[in-house]
Every structure is written in C-alpha cells, then in structure tokens.
Amino acid sequence: MSSEPPPFGSGRSPDDDPFRKQPPPDQDSGTPHGTPPGEPPYGSRPPPYGNEPPPYGGGGPYGGDPYGGDPYGGGSFPNDPLLGMPPLADSGKRVLARLMDMILVGIVVGLLAWAFRISQYTVDTDDIEFSRSVGQEVLAAVLYIAYDTFFTVRNGQTLGKRVMKLRVANLSDGNTPSTQTALLRAAVLWIPFAFCCACVWTAIAGGWSFFDKPYKQGLHDKAAKTVVVSTE
C-alpha cells in the first residue's frame, strides 16, 4: 500500500485513485492473461509463429507479450514501471493541451494586469518603468504555477489535458501526483517561462517528450518523476 499522503483537495487516498497503476496479470493464475490450464509454463512454450517474427514487432496489441502481456500497453519487462499503466500520451496532443492552458491562463494574466495597471512597461517621458514588467512576470508565474498545480493534484488533468484526454501520473505507481510533486513539476515548467525565456524554454521542456525514450517525458516530468498518459 502506498505511503504517499492523499493529494491535496482530492478527498481520497492514493489507493482509491481510479487511474492508479493496475497490478500486472498473474502468469500462473490460469486466467486469460496467464498460463492457460494444461499449457506448459510461460517460457517453455514455442513461439506462436514458429521461426517467423511476430507481426508488427510484437505478439500483443502493443507489441508486448504474445501470450497476454500488459493489457494497458505498458512495457514487456517485469521491472518496467509502465506495466499496468495506460498508453503514454502522444506528444502532439500534449502540445495542443499545453497551448490551450497557456491561452486560458494568459487571458487571465492579461485581464488582471490591466485591472491592476500592471502593464508590460509604461513610458513616462524618457523613463521606462521596468518594475511594471517584473510585476507582470511575477503575476504570470504565480497564476501559471497555481493553475497547473491545482488541476494536476485534483485529478492529473488541466483543462487542456481534459479536452485532449490526457492525464499526469506518477511514473512509480500511476497515482495522481501529490501537491509537492505537482508543484515541483509546475515550477520547473513555468518559472523560466515567466521570467526569462518563454518561447525557448517551453519548446525545450515540452518538446523533450518528442525525443525522450522510453517514457516520453518533458524536462518537467523528469524533475518530478511523472509521465503523461492517455485516458482513452
């Protein structure tokens, strides 16, 4: 049983998380995912395709164990943390979800900056009030981090991820991240975005998932030890 405290505001323990990692199928149970009754133990049977390689690079629907494997599309090896997890999210869908989140929070940042007169900069004769710029950067960082942390702790889904049917999960157990994990993940993503290199950092941190193997993690996922998976 997980010793991790229940996520802030979720009202449930990690063991009650409906998306948590499912236990791998028992190879000796005689169930459809294990060794059928009367069959020799797994590993002593001949391959189902003789000497021919299995189609599409694997025997199961996700290229896993042809005798059952992981029904959730995770890895094929006993120690693979993806065993029992839903399939990893498509990186293109992650980008679309992130753009939706950036637009939603950006609108709120702009409205609040206008309401409190925290413009990006103002010109008074020959002086540029750089303090206004810093004020808007702080506001943006706080709102982006708060938004990302709140929804990630709630159910692993920001509004953009909900639309794209994705969610954030702990790599270790598939549970919804704790407040500490979600806050670390959000801070790594949004602090550089707000204060120094918005476009460049977003492209690097988020785009990392296109090339990362085997878990398709962004840099913020690596820092928090999370993955993004599909909910379809």
Automatic annotation (TrEMBL):
Keywords: Cell membrane, Membrane, Transmembrane, Transmembrane helix. It comes from the Bacteria. Coiled coil: none annotated. It is a multi-pass membrane protein. Residues 57-75 have a biased composition (Gly residues). The chain crosses the membrane at residues 95-116, 187-211. Residues 1-75 are annotated as: Disordered. It is found in: Cell membrane. Residues 89-225 form the RDD domain. Its main location: membrane. Residues 34-56 have a biased composition (Pro residues). This is RDD family protein. It comes from Streptomyces ossamyceticus.
